[in-house]
Specification:
With 234 residues, this protein is of the alpha/beta class. It is 30% helix and 21% strand. Strands 3-2-4-1-5 form a five-stranded parallel β-sheet, sandwiched between helices. The N and C termini lie far apart (62 Å). Bound molecules: S-adenosylmethionine.
Amino acid sequence: MTTKGRLYGIGIGPGDPELLTLKALRLLQAAPVVAYQSATDKESIARKIIAPYLPGNQIEVLYHLPRALEPEQAKSIYDKEIEPIAAHLAAGRDVVVVCEGDPFFYGSFMYVFTRLSEEYETEVVPGVSSLMACPVALGVPFTYYNDILTVLPAPLPAEELITQLLTTDAAAIMKLGRHFTKVRDILHQLGLASRALYIERATMAQQRIVPLDEVDPAEVPYFAMIVIPSKSRL
Ligand SMILES: C[S@@+](CC[C@H](N)C(=O)[O-])C[C@H]1O[C@@H](n2cnc3c(N)ncnc32)[C@H](O)[C@@H]1O
C-alpha cells in the first residue's frame, strides 16, 4: 500500500522574498511537489515570490481560485481545482502549498486545508502577514498598550464598516479593489481620512504609498490596504 504524502501549507509573506521564514524555505525546497494558486489565468503572485528559491526539479501545480463568487459556485470550482493536489498526496508525494502572507489569515490555503487536512497529515507554517507588513512599510506604529485593532474586508456593507470603525482604536481595511470609493467616503464622513494611510503591493518591487485623496479608484489593485493607526503615542 502506498504511504500517503504529507500536506504542508506555508506562509510566504507579503511579497518580498526575503520575508519567508527559514522553516518555510526548508520545507519549500524539500518537497517533490509545489502548489500555488492564482485568482486569474495571469501569473501567480505566490509563484513569483518563491521563484528565487525553487531548485528546479520539482513538480509544480497551479490551481485557480476565482474571487467574488457566490459560495455555492465557489465550492464546486474549488473542489475541482484542488483535485491535482489530492492526487499527488494519494500517490505518496508530499505537497507544499505556498500561500501569500499567512495561511490562516484570509489565506488561499484554507480552501485546501478544509478539503484535505482530515485525510492527509498536515503541517501549517505561519507567514508574515500583510497585516503586519503594511504598517511597517508605511512607517507607522499600529497599536499601543490596550488598543483595539479591527480588521475589515472592504466588501462589507457601508453600515457595517461605519459601525466597526466607530468603536475601534486602529483598523486595517483589506480587499479594497472596486470598493475603494465607498471606503474613502466613509473615512471622510467619520473624520478618519486624515489618519488613513493607503498602500499597495507592500514590500513588493512595485510598492506604492499614495495619499488617500490622490488614489485613482479605477486603478486600486487587489493587493492594497488602508491602515488607520492608533492615535495613542505612549
Ligand atoms: C485574501 S487576503 C490574503 C491575506 C494574506 N493571507 C496575508 O496574511 O496577508 C488578500 C488581501 O490582503 C491584503 N494584502 C495582501 N498582501 C498585500 C500586500 N503585499 N500589500 C498590500 N495589501 C496586501 C490586501 O488587502 C488583499 O486584498
